[in-house]
Amino acid sequence: MSESSTNNTVDTADTVDTVDTAVQVEGVWKVFNQGLANEVVALQDVSLKVAQGEFISLIGPSGCGKSTLLRVIADLTDPTKGSITVAGLPAHQAREQQRYGIAFQQAALFDWRTVRRNVELPLELQGWDKAKRQARAMELLDMVQLADFADHRPWELSGGMQQRVAIARSLAVDPPLLLMDEPFGALDEMTRERMQNELLRIRMETGKSIIFVTHSIPEAVYLSDRVVVMSPRPGRITDVIPVKLTTRNEDTREEPAFFEAVTAVREALRGRGAGTPGRAKAGEV
């Protein structure tokens, strides 16, 4: 089920047959403390193409560079080598134009602002007038089914509700791309499953492209069109598992196709999928 190329690398650049590309990552390396005794190669020669409207999950062991790759795409840290484009723009320009929204494991809401005013924040920063940003915030809160809580404070909401507010805020400026770094990792299992269904519904309604970091194999399979498997540090893409589920609902997790995909991802994480590329040595970047 995996897609791999020759020369000991997994070439994800040709796996998306589409004119519209949401994200293009080409030959990206990230080295911290380069040239020093404590040099760390976090990412090694990573290439990835994400189609417009596609849902991609990044999975791998702790410390493999999943979050680093997400941060490089978001232009929150610079790559040591390689290039990134988002919606056809260099990553820096895409960030300045707010061409993506981002959600982290913690909702990071401001307790002194109401739920509505938390969602409004990106619009305030863009200079929207009060009436328009209030209308947009209420539209988004209605989409995440929290319109009745618009005037509440974040601390009055449950963890799952706070994450829905964070997702609504990330969509405020209507970006074509949503970057999510383990947004459901701190939730209990039942709330997590409800939030997964919420996210799938929002994706269907908005058509957003999504890159989603997770440690959970079932979560990655349930949500994704493709699961990108990363190696232990230095982070490399070692396999790409396509997920072909006809439907995604409460019964999906009991279907043979779901279990087959879960098994394929688990085998890839164990190194039984595509060939494992060689590791870089210090100074090779």
List keywords for this structure.
single chain; 285 residues; alpha/beta; Rossmann fold; 6-stranded mixed β-sheet; 4-stranded antiparallel β-sheet; disordered N terminus
Report the average pLDDT across residues.
87
* Name of the level-1 CATH class of the largest domain: Alpha Beta
What's the overall geometry? globular
CATH architecture of the largest domain: 3-Layer(aba) Sandwich
Biggest sheet overview: 6 strands, mixed
Radius of gyration: 19 Å
**What name does the CATH topology of the largest domain carry?**
Rossmann fold
Secondary structure: elements and pairs:
Layout (H helix, E strand, L loop, with lengths): L20 E12 L7 E12 L3 E5 L6 H8 L7 E6 L2 E2 H6 L3 E4 L11 H11 L4 H14 L15 H12 L6 E5 L7 H18 L2 E5 L3 H7 L2 E5 L6 E6 L13 H14 L16
Helix pairs in contact: 3-4, 3-5, 4-5, 7-8
Walk me through what this model shows.
By secondary structure, this protein is of the alpha/beta class. It is built from 8 helices and 10 strands. The strands form 2 sheets. It has a 6-stranded mixed β-sheet with strand order 6-7-8-3-9-10, with helices on both faces. The longest helix has 18 residues, at 189-206.
